[in-house]
Amino acid sequence: AAMVPALLAVQRTGAAYLPIDPDYPPERIRLALADATPVLVVAGEPGVIPETDVLTLVLDERAYAEQPLAADELAPSAPAYVIHTSGSTGRPKGVVVPHTGLTALARGLVDALALDADSRVLQLGSPAFDISVSEMCMAFGSGGTLVVPPLGPLAGQDLADVLTGRRISSALLPPSVLATVPAGEYPELRSLAVGAEACPPELVARWAVAGR
Predict the structure, then answer these.
(1) Could you tell me if 156 and 14 are in contact, meaning their C-beta atoms sit under 8 angstroms apart?
(2) How does pLDDT run across 172-182, given as a tens digit for each residue?
(3) Has residue 210 got a pLDDT over 50?
(4) Which one in 29, 139, 152, 153 has a CA-CA gap of 20 to 30 Å to 23?
(5) Which of 199, 129, 132, 207 is nearest to 163 (CA)?
(6) Taking the CB of residue 141, how many other CB atoms lie within 10 A of it?
(7) In what helix (H) or strand (E) does residue 175 lie, and over which residues does it extend?
(8) What are φ and ψ of residue 81, in 5° steps?
(9) What is the four-CA torsion angle of 84, 107, 173, 31, rounded to 10 degrees?
(10) Which SS3 state, helix, strand or coil, does residue 170 take?
């Protein structure tokens, strides 16, 4: 959960962030850090990020600044974050994403999924996968709530329990993950989007609401 305000704080200062998933192989993490050469690493606890030459700042829930940071004037073309590709065709490549388009992305998702201030959006994507950006855009672009689930893989009955227990109203899920969720009542779930892989027609039929 501390990742979200940390990312927002970085952007608030006018800097760009490089998300790192601690569950990724150490070699991939080292490659991303060497490629992007960050000036600061923010980690939840010592040891979660391989040793590097950059300064490491260890944060916990007691370490947040008491005074708000001043906002800088940013050009739309200024970098917002860096995401590395999967590397399926070779070496992972860092992609610099500017602020341009983030507003349009948020507006498009809010409109397409009918999100509002009562929306509760599930944060399921890895921080190193750009779907996590879409989830944040959905929540903050609508004035809703971003719900960060417990750590660990989330699928099957565990995911069903989060959907009901955390009153999730909107989520972005890969079809292979959605297929593991048992049939049942999800009264708060209003909008559901799938992606990243082909979605079988029978899965669409199972979750689709007539007339929508």
Answers:
(1) no
(2) 998 999 999 98
(3) no
(4) 139
(5) 207
(6) 21
(7) helix 175-178
(8) -165, 170
(9) 10
(10) strand
The answer to whether residues 169 and 146 touch, using CB atoms and an 8 Å cutoff, is no
Per mean pLDDT, which range of 35-49, 64-78, 181-195 is the poorest?
64-78
Neighbours of 152 (CB within 10 A): 8
For residue 162, the SS3 value is: helix
CB 140 within 8 A of CB 146: yes
Q: How far apart are CA 176 and CA 198, in angstroms?
A: 9
DSSP SS3 for 40: strand
**For the purposes of burial, counting CB atoms within 10 Å of the CB of 113, is it exposed (0-12), middle (13-18) or buried (19 or more)?**
buried
Strand pairing class (40-43; 145-147): unpaired
Query: For residue range 14-38, what is the model confidence (pLDDT) as tens digits?
Result: 788 898 887 788 888 888 888 888 8
Angle between the N-to-C axes of helices 102-112 and 131-142, in degrees from 0 to 180, rounded to the nearest 10 = 70
Distance CA 4, CA 23 (A): 17
CB-CB contact of 169 with 120 (8 Å): yes
Count, residues in the chain = 212
* Element at 115 (helix H, strand E): none
